[in-house]
């Protein structure tokens, strides 16, 4: 080519210069064209290989541009993946894992070998796993006694009327109940103390129960409370007792709350029949879960060795408490007979107490006179000790999009067949399925992190500390968290979730066969009430949802009032009970693994994150309805147990102490409503865009149609980013009033219920306290969050 130029210059004088132009134009055209083709080719390659190809690769589709040669299969298509995740879980294997976990005690921080076993199993199934350790402040039981005393009429001594056994009976058929090293009955985070005082029956010990006592002029200060289990989190029963100056708390399981299945109704008790064993005791934590979960001494940061420690008393009680059986409660309740008012003469929240009437308990409120007292002696050892989370990781092909799936491993008792190890067994079967899929060539698009948490029972410690440690990464990468705690204690599917995830649960429930084949072919969804509740607290999703702003779901199969009584946190939550009553044949364990497997497949294998933003908008609207109903005090008779306890957990501010203007507050709710409408429009747009992208993915776009491919790839990336970060907009950095650890403005555990989910906690608490100044503040914060969420979807 260069040789050509010389004659051209030489002919300048003879040839018209313009002859150069066509020639050069031609050359330029070719140069540019070839560059363009190169760039286009490279771009196509990039688009295909980086953006689209992994999706097709993953789905076993042979891309015309870069796919494997015909006949060579790599990857799995979605149906094949689902088939593996449906076919792998087996009832026999689930039983085998459950037998392992329930063979010995595994109280938080007490069983490293179970963490190692879990890690080794996961590794064996092809999931790279590690143990992560935290040093946490925790208590173990030392000694306890409970004695009913009466001043002797003859001398100045006290006669012992009754000494509680504080033990659960050994049952010959059930080996876990007879273990030498079985765990005593006690409360996690209860205070050491030795108190002697008259006592008062406080019903369920809800905020309003205590308020009714105060309003009736019953003296509670200096007394010991005896409360029924139920409704609100046990720690809150103790918290309010302490605030009112009470010196100790007993909490017992009243068979009146066992529905149909009671010995009074003629049912035998475990192991002969399905009713509650009279000696069964519900252990459990008395941490103030709605104030702050996790290690009480490391608020907001991980409990690593050597970190500074804050005073624990912000989130744990300083008065002693112990859990007792109804067999131990009967003599104590009977000692109240004839003292103070009778429950049946009080309002409807009290006059339902009948569960132990057949045993001679008349449910008098008391207090007992000074010569009838209880001595409650509770000795706890407090120390800082290691806990072990097992974390397994399956890397995905998309960077920075992660699904986390967790279950806790620790249990109050050697058994724990339902809580939590039915979940551990189901999770293991899910992981075995994922391992099989990986073996078959599956490469998940998104990373999956599996977690076996320790220390959940004391206060969601293992998960909370982990979230606190990895918060920046979780907030940058975590798409969703799937929790399973008690996978099975009966046959009814119960779910809770962030509304963006609801459809994912429904889809999975429709694809899994119910273990109940009374009607052939019926699915889990066919026998499900379809209810998906807002998440409060009570399991390991709490830190994900309320601290990190991650959408969460929680799944379980539970019994209803007509099913065998589940001996929650008792020695009788054993493998033997599970085989006999909870899940004979372990079919519901298998079904749970299948549902979880399908949810995981959907979340990590769908190119477009399968969220529904509009469903969130609708939920925000309906939560606002409930706030307005509450404000107008239009609330009808509560019907569900949750509604009853929500009502009873209200802190009713004094009528003559209203702060601010209710009208201005109402106006601010209207403004929230408008923001929700705008959010809904944006949410619908994103959902439509997601549907469009899914449609385009189905259409086989030719490799050379770069524009269409770029548009699709850009849309996918945009929608996925918007879905992933949507939930984060609902976090408010300063946190809720008086409990700054809780950052979510839409969801929180009820301040005085603990378990059940309060929606718009800032608004609801302000209404309860009739503090509309504070209400206005919260309306502003919530509106700003919703506006931010709407903006994030633009
Ligand atoms: C730990 O758990 C295993 C399996 O359940 C059990 O065999 C063992 O006794 C437990 N170890 C301790 C120290 O309790
Ligand atoms: C996953 O990817 C990370 C970061 O690239 C890497 O450090 C880690 O070893 C990988 N883990 C597995 C199990 O492949
Ligand atoms: C607890 O108090 C009782 C009654 O005051 C007393 O007899 C007993 O020795 C105390 N026990 C402990 C362990 O302090
Ligand atoms: C916690 O203990 C500290 C001192 O140890 C005390 O000053 C503070 O009042 C206590 N707080 C509560 C809520 O009991
Ligand atoms: C099984 O399903 C049928 C409905 O098809 C229902 O009536 C029955 O109560 C279910 N049985 C159990 C044990 O859940
Ligand atoms: Zn649990």
UniProtKB/TrEMBL annotation:
<feature type="transmembrane region" description="Helical">
    <location>
        <begin position="29"/>
        <end position="55"/>
    </location>
</feature>
<dbReference type="GO" id="GO:0004180">
    <property type="term" value="F:carboxypeptidase activity"/>
</dbReference>
<keyword id="KW-1133">Transmembrane helix</keyword>
<dbReference type="InterPro" id="IPR046450">
    <property type="entry name" value="PA_dom_sf"/>
</dbReference>
<keyword id="KW-0812">Transmembrane</keyword>
<keyword id="KW-0472">Membrane</keyword>
<feature type="domain" description="Transferrin receptor-like dimerisation">
    <location>
        <begin position="668"/>
        <end position="794"/>
    </location>
</feature>
<feature type="domain" description="Peptidase M28">
    <location>
        <begin position="390"/>
        <end position="575"/>
    </location>
</feature>
<dbReference type="InterPro" id="IPR007484">
    <property type="entry name" value="Peptidase_M28"/>
</dbReference>
<feature type="domain" description="PA">
    <location>
        <begin position="195"/>
        <end position="269"/>
    </location>
</feature>
<dbReference type="InterPro" id="IPR003137">
    <property type="entry name" value="PA_domain"/>
</dbReference>
<dbReference type="Pfam" id="PF04253">
    <property type="entry name" value="TFR_dimer"/>
</dbReference>
<dbReference type="Pfam" id="PF04389">
    <property type="entry name" value="Peptidase_M28"/>
</dbReference>
<dbReference type="InterPro" id="IPR039373">
    <property type="entry name" value="Peptidase_M28B"/>
</dbReference>
<dbReference type="InterPro" id="IPR036757">
    <property type="entry name" value="TFR-like_dimer_dom_sf"/>
</dbReference>
<dbReference type="InterPro" id="IPR007365">
    <property type="entry name" value="TFR-like_dimer_dom"/>
</dbReference>
<protein>
    <submittedName>
        <fullName>Vacuolar protein sorting-associated protein-like protein</fullName>
    </submittedName>
</protein>
<comment type="similarity">
    <text>Belongs to the peptidase M28 family. M28B subfamily.</text>
</comment>
<dbReference type="Pfam" id="PF02225">
    <property type="entry name" value="PA"/>
</dbReference>
């Amino acid at each position: 080519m260069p040789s050509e130029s010389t004659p051209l210059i030489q002919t300048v004088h003879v040839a018209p210069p313009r002859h150069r132009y066509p020639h050069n134009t031609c050359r330029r055209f070719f140069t540019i064209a070839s560059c363009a083709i190169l760039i286009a080719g490279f771009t196509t390659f990039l688009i295909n290989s980086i953006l689209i190809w992994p999706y097709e690769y993953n789905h076993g589709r042979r891309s015309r541009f870069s796919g494997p040669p015909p006949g060579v299969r790599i990857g799995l298509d979605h149906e094949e993946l689902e088939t593996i995740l449906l076919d792998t879980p087996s009832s026999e294997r689930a039983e085998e894992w459950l037998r392992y976990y329930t063979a010995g005690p595994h109280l938080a921080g007490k069983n490293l070998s179970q963490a190692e076993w879990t890690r080794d199993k996961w590794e064996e199934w092809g999931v790279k796993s590690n143990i992560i350790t935290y040093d946490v402040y925790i208590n173990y039981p030392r000694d306890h006694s409970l004695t009913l005393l009466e001043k002797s009429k003859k001398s100045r001594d006290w006669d012992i009327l009754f000494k509680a056994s504080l033990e659960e009976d050994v049952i010959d058929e059930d080996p876990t109940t007879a273990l030498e090293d079985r765990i005593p009955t006690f409360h996690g985070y209860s205070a050491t103390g030795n108190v002697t005082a008259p006592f008062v029956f406080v019903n369920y010990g809800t905020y309003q129960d205590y308020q009714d006592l105060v309003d009736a002029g019953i003296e509670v200060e200096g007394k010991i409370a005896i409360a029924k289990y139920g409704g609100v989190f046990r720690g809150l029963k103790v918290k309010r007792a302490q605030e009112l100056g009470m010196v100790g708390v007993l909490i017992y399981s009243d068979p009146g709350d066992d529905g149909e299945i009671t010995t009074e109704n003629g049912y035998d008790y475990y192991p002969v029949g399905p009713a509650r064993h009279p000696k069964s005791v519900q252990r459990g934590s008395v941490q103030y879960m709605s104030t702050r979960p996790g290690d009480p001494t490391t608020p907001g940061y991980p409990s690593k060795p050597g970190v500074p420690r804050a005073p624990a008393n912000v989130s744990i009680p300083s008065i002693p408490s112990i859990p007792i059986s109804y067999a131990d409660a009967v003599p104590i309740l009977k000692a109240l007979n004839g003292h103070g008012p009778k429950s049946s003469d009080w309002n409807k929240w009290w006059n339902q107490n009948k569960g132990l009437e057949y045993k001679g308990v008349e449910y008098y409120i008391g207090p007992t006179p000074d010569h009838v007292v209880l001595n409650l002696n509770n000795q706890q050892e407090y120390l800082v000790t290691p806990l072990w989370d097992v974390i397994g990781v399956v890397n995905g092909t998309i960077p920075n999009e992660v699904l986390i799936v967790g279950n806790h491993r620790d249990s109050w008792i050697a058994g724990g067949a339902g809580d939590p190890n039915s979940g551990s067994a189901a999770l293991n079967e899910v992981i075995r399925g994922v391992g099989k899929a990986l073996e078959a060539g599956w490469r998940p698009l998104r990373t999956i992190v599996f977690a076996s948490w320790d220390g959940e029972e004391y206060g969601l410690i293992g998960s909370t500390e982990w979230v606190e440690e990895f918060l920046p990464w979780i907030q940058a990468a975590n798409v969703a968290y799937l929790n399973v705690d008690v996978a099975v204690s009966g046959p009814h599917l119960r779910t809770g979730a962030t509304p963006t995830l609801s459809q994912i649960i429904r889809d999975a429930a429709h694809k899994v066969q119910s273990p109940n084949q009374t009607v052939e072919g019926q699915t889990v969804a066919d026998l499900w009430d379809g209810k998906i509740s807002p998440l409060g607290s009570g399991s390991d999703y709490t830190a994900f949802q309320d601290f990190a702003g991650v959408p969460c779901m929680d799944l379980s199969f539970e019994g209803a009032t007509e099913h065998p009584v589940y001996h929650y946190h008792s020695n009788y939550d054993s493998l033997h009970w599970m085989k006999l009553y909870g899940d004979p044949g372990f079919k519901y364990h298998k079904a749970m693994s299948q549902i979880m497997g399908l949810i995981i497949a959907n979340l990590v294998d769908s190119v477009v994150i399968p969220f529904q933003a509009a469903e969130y908008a609708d939920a925000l609207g309906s939560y606002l309805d409930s706030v307005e109903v509450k404000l107008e005090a239009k609330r009808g008779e509560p019907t569900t147990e949750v509604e009853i306890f929500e009502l009873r957990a209200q802190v009713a501010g004094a009528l003559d102490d209203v702060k601010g203007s209710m009208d201005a507050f109402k106006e601010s709710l209207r403004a929230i409503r408008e923001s929700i409408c705008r959010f809904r429009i944006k949410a619908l747009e994103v959902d439509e865009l997601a549907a469009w992208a899914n449609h385009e993915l189905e259409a086989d776009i030719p490799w050379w149609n770069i524009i269409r491919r770029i548009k699709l790839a850009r849309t996918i990336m945009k929608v996925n980013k918007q879905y992933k970060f949507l939930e984060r907009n609902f976090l408010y950095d300063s946190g809720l009033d008086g409990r700054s650890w809780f950052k979510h403005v839409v969801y929180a555990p009820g301040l005085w219920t603990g378990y059940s989910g309060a929606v718009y906690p800032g608004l609801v608490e302000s209404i309860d306290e009739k503090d509309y100044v504070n209400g206005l503040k919260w309306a502003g914060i919530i509106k700003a969050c919703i506006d931010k969420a709407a903006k994030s979807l633009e």
